[in-house]
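Q: what sequence does this backbone want?
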């Protein structure tokens, strides 16, 4: 699995740490818990999208693009990191933000990630919930071309075969770290939504022969829909890399912790954010990693894993989003 054949630029601080969570493991009395700190990728406070952007921005530069264009929710971690990647590489950035989450709290549409988007020099356009944001992305690209610009369009979450390479690389990196620690990983747990992170991990772990299972915890869609989204990208990424097809038995997305929907807070999420902060001094985010970690805690309590197993939680970052919903934790 030779990733050097794909264009890539250096944006992330890699490898990110793979750390034991000893206090939390003891408190839960379950398996030995580990955390892959992709909240520490460095760019714009870090997060999982930076790995994807290493390949996406490299492709944009190869095409001679002068502008990155992408879409996301108002408090999108992906948009914040895309804006930072554009600033880092001298590209303009245009963000199309959807009011996907009903939140009228002070600062939700101006603080946290949105504040950083503007600080990095991005241009922002906001749309009400329910817009076809993929159609808006392509329409905006055509408008920019008509102005003589050279846009490079990045799908939501950076989730296409080029972006997924970032998490193929993360899987390979994690295996190398586990080997150095003489650590047998029994399962990896990660938040899943736009699918690029989970799909990349599945392709990396299965395609490389390490056979480490990946459990996605859905942040929005029902299980069947989320698994179909992930499987499509697994298929496309494996094909893009010239790998054999990867079966659907390797794609699992648990939807038991979504609550009222994407971005809608749950009591489990709030408790999970508090628990990890108080036991390991690690900050989750309220939309993705907080719900995924709530799922991890619930599964530990339900006895999914034995006490001698090793479970790795891939932290996708996004703690900046806490500052947009501070009242949840007051």
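A:
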């Amino acid at each position: 699995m030779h990733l050097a054949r794909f264009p890539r630029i250096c944006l992330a601080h890699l490898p990110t740490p793979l750390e034991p969570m000893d206090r939390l493991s003891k408190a839960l009395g379950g398996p030995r818990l580990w955390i892959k700190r992709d909240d520490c990728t460095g760019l714009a406070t870090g997060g999982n999208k930076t790995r994807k952007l290493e390949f996406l921005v490299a492709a944009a530069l190869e095409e001679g693009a002068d502008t990155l264009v992408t879409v996301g929710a108002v408090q999108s971690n992906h948009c914040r990191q895309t804006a930072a990647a554009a600033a880092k590489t001298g590209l303009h950035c245009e963000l199309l933000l959807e009011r996907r989450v009903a939140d009228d709290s002070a600062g939700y549409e101006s603080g946290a990630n949105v504040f950083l988007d503007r600080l990095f020099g991005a241009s922002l356009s906001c749309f009400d919930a329910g817009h076809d944001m993929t159609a808006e992305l392509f329409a905006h690209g055509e408008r920019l071309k008509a102005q003589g610009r050279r846009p490079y369009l990045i799908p939501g979450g950076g989730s296409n075969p080029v972006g997924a390479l970032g998490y193929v690389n993360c899987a390979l990196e994690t295996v190398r770290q586990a080997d150095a620690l003489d650590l047998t990983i029994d399962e990896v747990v990660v938040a899943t939504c736009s699918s690029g992170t989970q799909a990349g991990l599945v392709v990396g772990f299965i395609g490389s022969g390490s056979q480490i299972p990946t459990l996605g915890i859905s942040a929005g869609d029902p299980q069947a829909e989320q698994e179909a989204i992930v499987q499509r990208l697994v298929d496309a990424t494996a094909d893009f890399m010239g790998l054999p097809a990867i079966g659907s038995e390797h794609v699992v997305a648990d939807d038991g912790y979504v609550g009222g929907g994407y971005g809608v807070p749950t009591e489990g999420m709030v408790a999970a954010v508090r628990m990890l902060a108080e036991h390991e001094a690690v900050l989750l985010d309220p939309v993705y990693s907080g719900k995924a970690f709530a799922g991890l805690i619930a599964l530990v309590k339900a006895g999914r894993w034995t006490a001698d197993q090793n479970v790795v939680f891939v932290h996708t970052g996004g703690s900046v989003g806490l500052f947009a919903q501070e009242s949840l934790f007051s």
